[in-house]
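Issue 218. Parser rejects a valid record. Input:
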Amino acid sequence: MASMDLTLQFVPYNEIEGMSSMGRIKKLLDLVKEDKIILLEGRLRKEEEVELIKTTMEQIDDDFKGLEIGVFYSDQQYGDLFKWLKGAFVNMLMGDRIGLTVIGPASIIKEIKRDPSKFQLLAHAPHQPKKAHHKKAKAKRRR
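Output the parser choked on:
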């Protein structure tokens, strides 16, 4: 049985930071179409997420079944004013770099679960293209 590879590709935020929204969406969608699961440092803006989903829906066909997306970041409640100010300051400086976004093909990712302390990605190996079965044509003898 041939091995089936599952590829995780880390995309640092600085790799998409200078791109336009459509440039970011195209880059991420192209990677997903290569059957890669993307680990994006940070997160997309809400309007970019909406556009990514919209663009994906327009491109679904027999070969591309869509994508799954999960965004994970600390949304913990701050207990005191100092912790809240510190969190607000970090968020102001870091902006969209905070957190982790996981994006992958729906044909590979079954489910993304998130709770406050962890996330789970349930996936199965990508389908390998079926090899064409060539039947040997029997040569007919003519007498």
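Fixed in the parser; the record now loads. The longest strand covers residues 109-115.
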